[in-house]
Design brief:
Pfam families: MFS_1 (PF07690). By secondary structure, the chain is mainly α. It is built from 15 helices and no strands. Mean pLDDT is 77; it is low at 392-401.
């Protein structure tokens, strides 16, 4: 996380070009669009512990490349682009393998809590890593990369010390000609036929796209009202705090929710209420507190998604389902960030806030249709969809009604 913060800062210091700094920042997000699908395929094919090791080793190599360029290289600009791409790509591989590996080392009864703690650690790293990266960069340009190198080395040692449990995917010990042939399209079928997964993928993709506009318009409002950069930074940190709170609270709250699809409904209603607060308030401080509230629901929903996938998706499809889910939901973030500037520039911050609120209300209205399309579509149409999509090997826990 320190290096992720330092890369665009270093690009700006070396080139004095905001455009190039933007290229470096974009290079770290492109893998979310391109790598999750192949990463899911790898996870369903190869040893998950080995993939985690390769992911951390690749991130270490990317960081070492920047350190070398700063100390001995004469052309660090292309190195920054390559390092950002590698860092993002290997992080995608590691995170996809990590989720599938957790269920091999944790008892089923403890799995929800373990997954929630994993999510919480991610938010904690976000909260600590970005400010730490900025502080270290201010001391010396190479310091964030040294810290990242040490963290990556420790991760590799920890992976080597892990219990030698079988991390092979299901059926890996069978002869190649007897293994079930599962394609990426089978993972997509699983997402479409599972009412929780198809609803949450659509809702989170739309939400992640729109929330980039919320973030930008709040920063623009703060700048227009002459808030200091330090104060804006502290307010933006509410995102990490909110995500941490949501992920820690998720297991306890989830025990009292009978139908996990209700979690989606509650989160979308909360999104509508919080974006309404942003729209009616011209105060960026109030808006950024609401932004923290959005992050609470985000952390809560992330834990619910991971729990559902590990419990309900057959293991031989888990990597592909995770890849499809993250390809769509995480891929919406850079696309939303790209569009946010145009939306805020054309509509101005207040009107852009009302636009986001309206889009969230429409999304909330579509949730019942996504959960139970059988109530809205002809029964013959639903039966035809199920017949064409549902292969025998896919266990459907929450079928299309």
């Amino acid at each position: 996380m320190c290096a992720a913060t330092a890369n665009p800062l270093l690009a700006l210091v070396l080139t004095h070009s905001p455009v190039f700094a933007g290229y470096v920042g974009a290079a770290s997000t492109i893998p979310a669009l391109l790598m999750y699908l192949p990463a899911g395929w790898f996870v369903d094919r190869f040893n998950r512990r080995l993939l985690m090791f390769v992911g951390q080793l690749g991130r270490l190599a990317a960081c070492a490349l920047v350190v070398y360029a700063l100390g001995f290289g004469g052309h660090p600009k292309p190195v920054l682009i390559v390092a950002s791409l590698c860092e993002g790509s290997f992080l995608v591989l590691y995170s996809a393998a990590e989720i599938t590996a957790v269920q091999r080392v944790v008892n089923p009864a403890e799995l929800p809590s373990a997954l929630a703690m994993n999510e919480a650690r991610g938010h904690l790293a976000f909260m600590a890593g970005k400010p730490l990266g900025g502080f270290l960069f201010g001391q010396r340009e190479s310091y964030p990369y040294y810290v990242n190198l040490l963290a990556s080395l420790w991760s590799l040692v920890a992976l080597l010390m892990m219990d030698k449990t079988n991390y092979q995917p299901q059926g890996a010990d069978q002869p190649a000609n007897t293994r079930p042939r599962i394609s990426l399209f089978d993972g997509l079928k699983m997402v479409i036929l599972n009412s929780f997964l198809r609803t949450v993928v659509v809702v989170c993709s739309v939400g992640n796209f729109l929330f980039q506009t919320v973030l930008l318009l709040l920063v623009v409002l703060a700048e227009q009202q002459h808030l200091s950069s330090a104060r804006i930074g502290v307010l933006l940190a509410t995102s990490g705090v909110g995500g941490l709170i949501g992920s820690v609270a998720a297991p306890s709250v989830g025990k009292h929710v009978r139908d996990e699809r209700n979690i989606i409904k509650l989160c979308v209603v909360a999104w509508a209420a919080l974006t309404f607060i942003v729209a009616v308030s011209a105060q960026p401080v109030v808006g950024l507190v609401a932004w923290g509230g959005l992050s609470v629901t985000g952390g809560f929903l992330n834990v619910a998604i991971v729990n559902h996938q590990t419990k309900q998706v057959p293991e031989h499809l888990l990597g592909r389902v995770i890849g499809i889910n993250r390809f769509l939901t995480s891929g919406a973030v850079p696309l939303g960030a790209l569009s946010a500037g145009y939306i805020v520039a054309e509509l101005q911050p207040r009107a852009a806030a009302w636009f986001v609120f309206g889009a969230i209300v429409l999304t909330a209205s579509a949730v019942p249709l996504l959960i139970r399309p059988g109530r809205w579509l002809p029964a013959r149409t639903v039966a035809r969809i199920k017949k064409r999509l549902a292969p025998e090997e896919i266990r459907e826990p929450v079928a299309v009604p």
